[in-house]
Structure formats: C-alpha cells, structure tokens
Amino acid sequence: MSTRELQQRLAAAIRDGADADGLLAGDFATGLAVYRHAYRARLLAALADNYSVLARALGDAAFDALGRAYVDARPSRHPSIRWFGHQLADFMAAAGDALVPHASLIDFARMDWALRAAFDAADAPLLEAATLAALGPDDWAGLVLQLQPGVHRVHLAHAIEPAWRMLRAWEPGSGADPPALPEPVPHEHVLLAWRQGLETRWRSLEPLEAALLEAIATGQPFARLCERAAALLGDAEAAAPAVVGALQQWLAEGLLRRPC
C-alpha cells in the first residue's frame, strides 16, 4: 500500500469512521479515538464560530446537539474549515422540532452565514458616482450595474432582526443575563448583507428595493429596473426618481462594483 493510500485510509478512518484495521500497529485504537474526537470537536467549534448568534439563540446544549447531527449528516468535504456549515440552514429546515424548536432559527442561520460570507468575500473596485456622471443620456438605458462579491440577499420567513441584534450584543460568560427576546413573527422579506470597508453591515429591504437588486443580480439593464419600479409603484413618472434614489444609496454604501 502506498503512502498516499495510507494517508487516504487514515483520513477516512478519522473523518468518516471507516475501517482502520492494519493501518498502524500498537495502541492505535486509543490514538484513533482521540483523533476522531478532536476532529469532531474542531468541526463543532467551526460551526459555533460561523453561527455565533444562532448558537446564542439555541443555547450550548441545543446547539451542540444540532452540530453533532449536522456533522454526521453532512461531513466536511471542503479543504478549508472556514466553509464548513454552508448547508446548515437547509439541514435545519428538514431536521424536525427536536433539533429546531422554532422555524425562525433557520433564519438566524441564514443571516449568520450571509454576514460571515460577506466579511470573507473578495474585494472589487467600487463603482464611483463620477463614473456614472460621465455617461451620456443615451448610455443609461443599457447600463448594467454589478453588485460587489460580498453583497448577499437572503430570503427570510420571520422578522428576526430585533432578536438577532439583541443576541449579537450579548456576550455569554460576561455575567449579564441572556436578553428577553421578542417573538419573531412570520414576515416574508429579504435581508441585505454586505461588507463596507472592514465592517459587515445589514438591513432589511422593502419590496421595491429587493426587486431592483434582484434585477441587478440577474444582469438586467437600467431601463428594465425602471420598468420594474413602474410596475411595483403603479406610477411610471415616479419610477426613475425611485431608481435613482436607490442608486445613490447603493453608491454610498459601496454595494456596486466598477464594470470589468
């Protein structure tokens, strides 16, 4: 057996619990158990780091149970542990009440992951107002705007933002009691998450802005944005000012990238 094959078998034995017979002599069983425990503990720690607010919402014991079930069901396959847990929200959606006692917890997971992904996203040159000011009148209709790589739009089913903000501000172990959380009420909406400089930011979107950002994400030109605004507002004359106002906010927040 080659060294590479031995390494692959050892990795499978630690990661997946595969058969380890013949790999190493001596008291290997004890050492393998230690490695298996350490590997799972590291994955659970990565989940807690990537989903810090969800972990606070669930509490240590419940989050640990969820994490262990996820590790068993969705073993790590990415070479970087940073991206372990990318399927947690989808896993939670099918996990049942024993692991996910309230459906809003799935939204906590989606929000946590979006903000972490925004923080780690690649940088791209910002679109500046001066670039747009240099456009001629005939250039605007076909203008295709592009979102920064760190801009994420997350569909949520509950109004979790007040509770999320309170949990984010609370530090477990600080001696302060956990906050009394408001009940997240059902509310279908889109959350915007992005990075501005070295800080992650988020805000909830009104339907018009959510539709405009969806149009940008799918490569639709500026004229189409105005058409969508007109349809949603029921007022063609108000559409262009509404889109321009949103555009000014996006420029100020650094949501747009300079065209390649």
Layout of strands and helices, then pairs:
Elements: H1 3-16, H2 28-50, H3 52-58, H4 60-73, H5 88-93, H6 104-120, H7 129-133, E1 146-147, E2 152-158, H8 161-169, E3 186-196, E4 199-205, H9 207-217, H10 222-233, H11 236-253, E5 256-257
Antiparallel strand pairs: 1-5, 2-3, 3-4
Helix pairs in contact: 2-4, 3-4, 3-6, 9-10, 10-11
Question: Mind explaining what this structure looks like?
Answer:
- The protein has 260 residues and is mostly helical.
- The protein has a domain at 1-101.
- The protein is 52% helix and 11% strand.
- A hairpin with a 2-residue loop joins strand 3 (186-196) and strand 4 (199-205).
- Helix 3 packs antiparallel against helix 6 (104-120) and helix 9 (207-217) packs antiparallel against helix 10.
- The chain is globular and about 75 Å long.
- The model has no long low-confidence stretch (mean pLDDT 90).
Mean pLDDT: 90
- Sheet/helix structural class: mainly alpha
The biggest sheet, with number of strands, parallel, antiparallel or mixed sense and barrel status, is:
3 strands, antiparallel
The termini sit apart by: 50 Å
Radius of gyration: 23 Å
Number of helices: 11
Order of helices and strands: HHHHHHHEEHEEHHHE
Overall 3D shape: globular
Helix content: 40-55%
Spatial order of the strands in the main sheet?
A: 2-3-4
* Strand residue percentage: 5-15%
Low-confidence stretches: none
Question: How many runs of DSSP E, i.e. beta strands?
Answer: 5
